[in-house]
Amino acid sequence: MLNVKLALPLPVAVMHNGGAVALLFVLVTLLARLKEPGPKELGPVA
Fold first, then answer.
1. Which residue among 4, 6, 18, 26 has its CA within the 20 to 30 Å range from the CA of 39?
2. Cβ neighbours for 3, distance < 8 A, ≥ 6 positions apart
3. pLDDT tens across 1-46, in order?
4. Is the dihedral of CA 8, 9, 13, 16 positive or negative?
5. 8 CB contacts (<8 Å, ≥6 apart)?
6. pTM of the model
């Protein structure tokens, strides 16, 4: 909504969204690399 109110051009809005996507991708990638794989769950032993 600020894009319309401040009369920002469309490329600025697209770059802003692209930057947000890039930051989200980096965050998810770092979290996936930092998370250690947990022990495998074993089912009930009969």
1. 26
2. 10, 12, 13
3. 666 677 778 888 889 999 999 999 999 999 988 886 766 666 666 6
4. negative
5. 2
6. 0.58
- Number of DSSP helices (H) and strands (E) in the chain, helices first: 2, 0
- Token pair in block for residue 15: 């770059």
**Residues in contact with 2: Cβ distance below 8 Å, sequence separation at least 6, in sequence order:** 8
Which residues, other chains included, contact 12 with Cβ-Cβ below 8 Å and sequence gap of 6+? 3
Closest listed residue to residue 15, CA positions, set 30, 28, 3: 3
Q: For residue 12, what are the CA distances in angstroms to 17, 24, 29, 43?
A: 9, 18, 26, 53
> DSSP state, 38?
P
